[in-house]
Amino acid sequence: MTDTLSTTAAASAERTKRIRAGLRKRHLTEAIFKGFGLGAIIVALGFVTLLFTDVLSKGIPAFTQSNLHLSVTYDPAVIGVDPAPVRAAGQSDADFRAANLKWQRDVALLNWNKVVEASLRAAAPAGYDIDSRQILTIAETNARHQIRDLFVADPSLLGKTIEVDVLASANADNWVKGNIDRDLGDTQQQLAPAARALIDTYEANGTITSGFAWSIFTNVDSRAAPAAAGLAGAFMGSLYMMLVVILLAVPIGVASAIYLEEFAPKSRLTDLIEVNINNLAAVPSIVFGLLGAAVFINYLHLPLSAPLVGGLVLTLMTLPTIIIATRGALQGVSPALRQAALGMGASKTQMVFHHVLPVTLPSILTATIIGVAQAMGETAPLLLIGMNAFVASVPATPLDQATALPVQIFLWQGNENRNFFEARTSAAIIVLLAFMIALNAIAIFLRTRLEKRA
Amino acid sequence: MNSFIIAALLLGLLGLAYQTGWSRSRSLATPNGVKVHSRPQYHGSLVAIWTMIPALVILALWGYFGPDLTRSFALSQIPAATVQSLDQMGLNNAFLRLQSIASGFGVTGELAPYEQAAGESLRSFQLMTSVVVALVAIGAGIAALLFARSRITARLRARNTVERVVNLALLACSAVAILTTLGIVASLVTEAYRFFTFINPLDFFFGTVWNPKFSSTVEGDYGQYGLLPLLSGTLMVAAIAMLVAVPVGLMAAIYLSQYAPRQLRAVAKPIIEILAGIPTIVYGFFALITVGPFLRDTGAAIGLNISATSALTAGIVMGIMIIPFISSLSDDILNQVPRTLRDGAYGLGATQSETIRNVLLPAALPGIVGAFLLAVSRAIGETMIVVLAAGNSPVLRGTPLEPVSTITVSIVNQLTGDTDFAGPQSLVGFALGLTLFVMTLLLNVVALYIVRRFREQYE
Q1: B residues 234-263 lying closer than 8 A (beta carbon) to A
Q2: Is B180 close to A426, i.e. CB distance below 8 A?
Q3: B108 and A39: CB-CB below 8 Å?
Q4: What is d(CA B41, CA A353) in angstroms, rounded to the nearest whole number?
């Protein structure tokens, strides 16, 4: 008896031990598995953090910009030009414009660099030894255009001295910000020693100051004057495209979702439309660019690089998203609401437009804004319809040449002036992300607000 | 009479028509107890629809034929002898000059003897035709308005007609999706066909050398257009992306749906989904500036020679982009597995991870495979990350540490800024696009099929 008892006890102790060991192993596996899960979350969150800190830390310095405060003298000895033409009686518009253009050409042909140089020298210590070419590398090359344009706008400036703020050149800006290693030898420096020393002098006497870089927002892109390159043109281009997308994609998308969800008979045609929309949603964006290039540009001869064409391409791309989201919203409406409307004698159309649609409006609106925001971040299809052309003007109509914000980022990242444009590109990315976050925030705000009311 | 004024006139007419129909309907006498069938706004809308149709048809016709008419009138004003002395270019210039004179802006320099008079008559012609067209359009609109008004009776089923028109408009909007697909297929197929008249399809699909020549001194030598280097690059980048995205995305979905406390889930899920909303150009820049140099330096530290722009760089960053896609799809699919299956496993004494690995995942497997395929199709079609970070080197290579090129990169390279589709150099973009389209379409169809089959199991 005791024997068997002890063997059973031993066996059970043995079993318990085995189970304990097994359990320990199983719990270890459990912990490891859970750890992997947590690890995956940490990795994913880490990527988000890394991406944002990377872009922010690189881009934020670009929002500060070095400016030169110069006293510009419009010396008649340097600016020898006839007075601006006045319109004579009976002169045709075309003739007056020609005369005016001739005067402007004369003004443009003047050597405005001399004026810039004189102003720069006036701010330097008396008799500072530096040659003209070197001193001009301190101011951005668009300074002469800025000073010239002031004169064209007001020819009476001749002989006067005015205070003008011009941008420091990209190299000077980098030097002031300390992006350039000051210990490098002269051969590796972009700026001559005399220019570098003069920049330091300017900084000490207050000619150079750092300020918020408004020019990023107010200027258009520039090749010759990197420090003056801005996002205004790209921003307008994006805005026009957004306008086209909102005007076309939203009504068409919502209408076709309503048709498919509420009216479509189950037929081969509507089946085809459904399958089509699901497939379109998964077509790579660059294929829409090919469509745009072949149909809108090559066949319909719409203008190259125009926001209208970009907007049309993005519209076709966004449509499936809006349709699918709207259908989801319509499906969510309770059947009781529909039956109540029909029961009160509303026709089917009235039921949809008077009762179902208003209830779903918040979700449709949210989905639409998010769809539009996604379209705004798209780059690849725009490259194929020529929106990566260099455009140095703000587009006045949707038919003018333009770029878009993401395309501007693409153009800037390829700029050879690396150490300056890396920051510029990150700054543009910050603007784009801010734009998109703002759109998403609006969507969320509208949804919560409208849903509370409904 | 510019288009702005015409639009304003039309809008005014539209309002007038609606108002007419509305007030007519309100004033209907209802003899011997017959009720008016439709409410006034439907009568108004019906009259407005009736009014718009003829006016818009006339304006559309003028928009189509008008410019040609104006041009031939202007050219008829130029003396026949002058016309004969001019070539096509010269005629265009003469027409443009006449137009500027007619617009009142004038031209610079001396006028040819006939020009002033011709410009004046062109001006009056333009003014007259636009006034006539506007008047005819508005007149037709008003006639239609009066006709429609006369038809309004108590029994008129205005609502039904208006609703039929609305339905037609809705159907037309739905057809846009079909038209888009047709447009994509038609443009890809016709242009790719033109490409294949230059290059043998066999050379394209099975060629191992990608070397398109843009300018060639030898007639008929367009270079080599072998797809395989691009295909291998595309698949390599996509495979690396999946190696990053699937484990991270799947484990993140499992942790968030099964383990995570509610607060963590509420915070982590939207943050991960932010990754899905970031424009791909931003990822491309991130790969180029940060990830590429980091990989290169890490490789140098352990004695590996990794290029800053390589399949690895592009693949890893593309994987990051796809994480939220995998995680949110897997999350949905895991949540669809019935509770009873899970509770059964717990009842048998399984730990949570055992339940997940042996019960949940096998049950969700088809759905996850579907999500996986959708993600692959996304990775294959992704453009900006590879344009910036893959290095664009279209050579068949076995290692992911070197630069590669992909189908999408080559489309961008061949077609950017070039819309003269005359030679195979740009037409190849469409052949590549067709390949890409077919590949992603197949992947999507299979994925959707698998996902749908799976969903039906529990319903």
Answers
A1: 247-252, 254-256, 258-260
A2: no
A3: no
A4: 14
